[in-house]
Design goal:
about 350 residues; alpha+beta; six-stranded antiparallel beta sheet; five-stranded antiparallel beta sheet; elongated
Length: about 350
């Protein structure tokens, strides 16, 4: 074997690899628009409250938000001014805001004849926020327990009417309480949440003629609440608990859908300066959870579509004037000699 020839071929191959990696690095380094440098808040406004990012149209302070997305920031966290609920996260792309639902309905009936209850627990949102029917569920805990949620929705001509969803949880004694983290109906039940709801109440009551002293002795209390589907994990100890609600005095996570306007995209696009999708390379999206629209940056762009100049390109640019790639063809031809 001619070692000098093999060495030359190896040098050619090494040169090809180095050139390719250099070009790849150069392409990556000259991409336009880094998500870390994109401003999400209104110019001159705070973009965070604690560890929660606050993107426009949400904002803290006068001139920093679009109604009704005023956020109050204090030492304990960020809160929606219109509702008073605590904000955990705001997602511009999905049009979601994750909050703490402070409403857990509960009722306790003890074998000594005494009782206590948390009453009918409800939450009222402004018209630009709806409870997400895809990301939340009604959960009810207890034996011989009926949990239900009553929501208020609007039909044609803005006429309000109630919608009721419920579930029933049963267990005759402590031995047949479900041992899974999922709600199977044995000590815990779940059901979906209806759509287009800005106002709802939850309650939890013993089911008549089934809830007797035997069940009462090991499961005196029942609880019902609406929370994010991915949050709740059932534990059999909850069935006998008399203080489940007190463990969550701050509330349970809840996902809200929000819209920036209550009209359709076709209607909103005719509103001129009132049209919320202010950025070039942004697009309007009709929502499915009730009437309204929101905005996203167009494909290949990222940032805040509600701000002028808010959507920046994420595609990568390679400038021929800087990188002449014609030499690669020569290298590829030389490399072919190796085979």
């Amino acid at each position: 074997m001619d070692w000098s020839v093999l060495m030359v071929k190896g040098q050619k191959l090494l040169l090809l690899v180095v050139a390719t990696l250099t070009v790849q690095f150069s392409i990556t380094a000259h991409g336009s628009g880094s998500s870390g440098s994109i401003s999400i808040a209104h110019p001159g406004c705070l973009d965070k409250c604690g560890n929660v990012s606050i993107p426009y149209p949400f904002g803290i302070g006068n001139g920093c938000f679009q109604e009704p997305f005023n956020v109050i920031c204090n030492g304990s966290g960020a809160y929606l001014a219109s509702t008073g609920v605590k904000v955990l996260d705001i997602d511009l792309t999905l049009g979601e805001v994750r909050v703490q639902n402070p409403r857990i309905a509960w009722q306790c009936n003890y074998t000594n004849g005494s009782s206590s209850e948390g009453g009918l627990e409800g939450l009222t949102l402004d018209p630009f926020h709806k409870v997400s029917y895809t990301q939340n569920k009604l959960t009810s805990i207890g034996c011989a327990t009926l949990g239900y949620v009553i929501g208020i929705t609007k039909g044609k001509n803005q006429v309000e009417y109630p919608i009721i969803n419920s579930c029933f949880s049963f267990c005759s004694d402590a031995s047949n309480v479900g041992d899974s983290t999922e709600c199977s109906g044995m000590g815990c039940c779940q059901t979906s949440f209806p759509g287009n709801i800005s106002v709802f109440n939850t309650t939890s009551v013993p089911f008549p003629d089934i809830y007797d002293s035997s069940i009462q002795s090991f499961s005196p209390c029942s609880y019902s609440f609406v929370s994010a589907s991915d949050w709740f994990k059932f534990d059999s100890s909850y069935v006998s608990s008399t203080d489940f609600a007190s463990k969550y005095t701050d509330g349970v996570p809840l996902v809200l859908d929000w819209v920036v306007g209550n009209g359709s995209c076709s209607e909103a696009s005719k509103m001129g300066s009132q049209y919320a999708c202010q950025a070039m390379n942004s697009e309007c999206i009709n929502v499915s959870n009730g009437p309204g629209y929101r905005c996203n940056c167009s494909q290949g762009y990222e940032g805040n579509p509600y701000l002028q100049g808010g959507c920046h390109g994420t595609h990568l640019h390679l400038h021929k004037s800087t990188y002449d790639l014609s030499f690669l063809s020569d290298l590829l031809f030389m490399e072919s000699d190796l085979y």
